[in-house]
Amino acid sequence: MPKITLQPSEERLIQTSGLFLSILDADGGFKLENPKIGVISGSAGRQYQIKDISEMLFVNSGVSAVNIEYEVANIVITSVGKGAVTVSNEIVVKRIVEAINVTATSTVEDGKMAKNVANNFAPIAIAKTSIAAGATVEVIAARAALNRTAIIQLITDSPNMAEIRLGSSALNAAVNQGIFLQGNKDAVSAYEWETETAIFIHNPTAAAVTIAGGETWRA
User: Which of 193, 190, 164 lies closest to 177, judged by CA?
Assistant: First the structure.
């Protein structure tokens, strides 16, 4: 296909002895001029009906050179430019070849978007709410569920601040690792974790600590 380069402020007269002018590619803007149509904008992916127009003036009024690829033809080109396709008839999808798995966290109710909120709650087992000094305990098991959130509160009944570390395994909840919480019953420290993993708590102190909390999810 013909290719031209228009330098800044350059004009070039192109013979267009056909019914349609297609701009296949262009790396910048330019103008098309003819006494019968006046001045119109030219850009990649456009097709112009040019019946009874034997020549077209390509004009680059910009400050940079423009590379243009064009085609003059007597038939309608249904695919012009890079990746642009024109479909003239209705598209009918008969079947989906591959299934698409979608997990939705929202739904539409009465024309409005509504979040799929959690509708289940399970507290931490009472036997796991007291964690001995130096111990690491899995307080909540893993659960693969929609909108699952684990809630941990540090509520030790002591004037001294208690400390714990949170993680998704015994290894990353160890000393100097994991999420750090410090608090007591009068200054409760809490953390909400949106995760499907198990929750482990490590007590790095020399005294037992007391926790509360649980998990919420949507069934």
Answer: 164
The domains of the chain, with CATH numbers, are 3-73 (2.60.120), 120-218 (2.60.120.10)
* Per-residue CA distances from 69 to 66, 84, 168 (Å): 10, 15, 58
Closest by Cα among 70, 71, 23 to 44:
23
Q: Residue 83: CB partners within 8 Å, gap ≥ 6?
A: none
> Of 78, 75, 12, 83, which Cα lies nearest the Cα of 2?
12
- Record the tokens describing residue 195, joined without a space: 């995760």
What does the pLDDT look like over 132-169, one tens digit per residue? 999 999 999 999 999 999 999 999 999 999 999 999 99
Strand 38-42 relative to strand 11-15, pairing: unpaired
Name every residue whose Cβ is closer than 8 Å to that of residue 105 and which is 6 or more positions away in sequence: 115, 116, 146, 147
